[in-house]
Amino acid sequence: MIMRPLELPDVVEILPVRRSDERGFFSEVWRADALESEGISIDWVQDNHSFSATAGVIRGLHFQTPPCAQDKLVRVTRGSIFDVAVDIRQGSPTFGRWVGLVISAEKWNQILVPKGFAHGFMTLEPNCEVLYKVSAPYAPAHDRAIRYDDPAIGVEWPDVEADVLLSQKDASAPRLAYVETGFVYEREHD
Ligand SMILES: Cc1cn([C@H]2C[C@H](O)[C@@H](COP(=O)(O)OP(=O)(O)O[C@H]3O[C@@H](C)C(=O)[C@@H](O)[C@H]3O)O2)c(=O)[nH]c1=O
């Protein structure tokens, strides 16, 4: 597995190796011991799978508040998405900043979005299947959404020449300034 840090510290792109032969391919998509040697140790407790039928579907920006916060490891087995993580840790030097990258079945890459970040994605084509692991179970009372187009965050969503399609929850989500995220930035020890 190749690890590639992104512009926001702690958000990481992971590139699993794909071993191909005449039958197809085999790939280790998560391996605790390999990631532990990179300083990443996470106990996953739930696997999610979502399907979006059209291009332009936006899900997000979502997170669960502490103590039900979730790390997420996201990958795509069909189609492609523009995936976004936003730093929502109060006091963080990068609070409110976002990072985005294309995750696709073709690239076979993954993004690790840690606790303290809101997460969302836009489908870049029809029929996208997104799979992700989370480190805490779904807790509806702690589930929060932030507006995908909050100007204070300024995510540059790609132009996919399709109407944006949102859930009702996401269409009425508040801006980050009005959300109590519950995350406080902890400076790393020297
Ligand atoms: C997230 C979740 C939803 N649900 C239910 C609630 C609802 O009836 C239905 C759809 O839920 P949502 O509209 O919240 O689904 P969706 O908008 O796809 O939410 C997801 O978006 C991405 C960006 C994330 O990061 C995820 O953590 C999650 O928040 O599924 C579960 O049963 N378990 C879960 O873990």
UniProtKB/TrEMBL annotation:
Catalytic activity: dTDP-4-dehydro-6-deoxy-alpha-D-glucose = dTDP-4-dehydro-beta-L-rhamnose
Domain of life per record: Bacteria
Known function: Catalyzes the epimerization of the C3' and C5'positions of dTDP-6-deoxy-D-xylo-4-hexulose, forming dTDP-6-deoxy-L-lyxo-4-hexulose.
Upper classification of the organism: Bacteria, Pseudomonadati, Pseudomonadota, Alphaproteobacteria, Sphingomonadales
Species for this entry: Sphingomonas parva
Keyword Isomerase assigned: yes
A Gene Ontology BP annotation from the UniProt entry: polysaccharide biosynthetic process
Family label: Belongs to the dTDP-4-dehydrorhamnose 3,5-epimerase family.
GO cellular component assignments: cytosol
Quaternary data: Homodimer.
Pathway assignment: Carbohydrate biosynthesis; dTDP-L-rhamnose biosynthesis
Record keywords: Isomerase
Isomerase in keyword set: yes
Residues at the site labelled Participates in a stacking interaction with the thymidine ring of dTDP-4-oxo-6-deoxyglucose: Y138
Active site: H62, Y132
UniProt GO MF annotations: dTDP-4-dehydrorhamnose 3,5-epimerase activity
Gene name for this UniProt entry: rfbC
Protein name: dTDP-4-dehydrorhamnose 3,5-epimerase
Enzyme Commission code(s) on record: 5.1.3.13
